[in-house]
Amino acid sequence: MELLSIATTPGAGVWAIRARYCLVRLDEFEGQTKRAGDAYQRIVLDANDDPAAVRSAVGLGRLSLRGGAFAASAAWLQEAVEREAPVETRAADLRELAVRGVLRGLGQGSGWSPSLAERFAVDVRSPAGLARLPDGGWLIADRKGEGVVRFDSTGRPTRQWPLQDVQAVTVDLFGRSFAAAGEKIYRLHPGEATSIARQGGMAPVSSIAVDAAGGVWMTDRRGGRVARLDPAGAVPEVIWDDKQAKLDHLTWDGRRIVAVDLKDGGLVAITPAGARLLGDVIFARPVGLAADAAGQITVLDAKAMQVVLLGPGGDVRARLALTTAGVERPTALTLGPDGSLDVFDETAGTIVRIP
């Protein structure tokens, strides 16, 4: 209510515009894309010289990405980059993602460059989870080691959280890090791991993901149940229950949770209203799943030795043979905000970054 009051107060000056921007950003988080798009455009027109207008251009770029309008997204994001959008908006990275979409639409390759792949040695042999950090580094759950380790973008370990029986890690939209270990869910702070809830009847979980509202989603070890932990909750609430399925590798695609069913190799989209199959592509041995800001889903198929990119509706948009990047035994996957790939190659204990 305070933001709305400021946004509509005569004489509030620049604070009114900035309060309007904050309200629109909340609309975007809540999935009110049409209303958010109209409001972002009004800010750009009404206050083009204000920093809120630059952030609004980034917002329009994000919304265009979500709608599959890659050329329009690239244009908005280019404008924001030229106007020196703040680093935290990731305007340059999102522009790169939009350009990849344009090139794929024109039939100019997969959008990835395996010939330019880089390898980073990390002191982990069997990751239970892999996530890209905002600074380009990684968060890895070490199944055989000492809990969760943070690595910088060169592969150097910079922080360690000694959690026993670590099962999964994830990084949310705001760069906050979470882990599942033992019977608890943890928030990872620079100095410590803070328990935020017990896993309850879901323990031990096999994967976790965080939605835009801060809710932590999880699958149990058997994959027959999916639960959500409310940010203010103490125990997770079961959202989906099907003993015939084996869901794993949860990821938040910006609107919903997506998982892969290890029994039949298909993708499943999950919301509080229920679950449904996503597309008709079947994967031989999916071991990794990630989503980008455009709502595109990337699947690592270890048996087929390829990465497959699908649109939000499950349509195949690109395939990449991992052998072309020198990957021998892929076991985990994560994405950068620019759409680049990070694949964990267990043979050499390295992360292969494919730009």
Description:
It contains six helices and 24 strands. By secondary structure, it is of the alpha+beta class. It has two domains: 2-105, Tetratricopeptide repeat domain (Serine Threonine Protein Phosphatase 5, Tetratricopeptide repeat, Alpha Horseshoe), CATH 1.25.40.10; 114-354, Neuraminidase. A four-stranded antiparallel β-sheet has the order 1-24-23-22, with no helix packed on it. Strands 2-3-4-5 form a four-stranded antiparallel β-sheet, with no helix packed on it. A hairpin with a 4-residue loop joins strand 3 (138-142) and strand 4 (147-151). Helix 3 packs antiparallel against helix 4 (51-66), helix 4 packs parallel to helix 6 (91-105) and helix 5 (70-82) runs antiparallel to helix 6 (91-105). The longest helix is centred in the N-terminal third of the chain and has 16 residues, at 14-29.
Can you tell me the CATH architecture of the largest domain?
6 Propeller
Tell me what portion of residues adopts beta-strand conformation.
35-45%
- How helix-rich are the residues, as a percent range? 10-25%
CATH topological fold name of the largest domain: Neuraminidase
CATH class bucket of the largest domain: Mainly Beta
Total tally of structural domains: 2
Q: pLDDT average, as an integer? A: 93
Structural class: alpha+beta
DSSP, total strands: 24
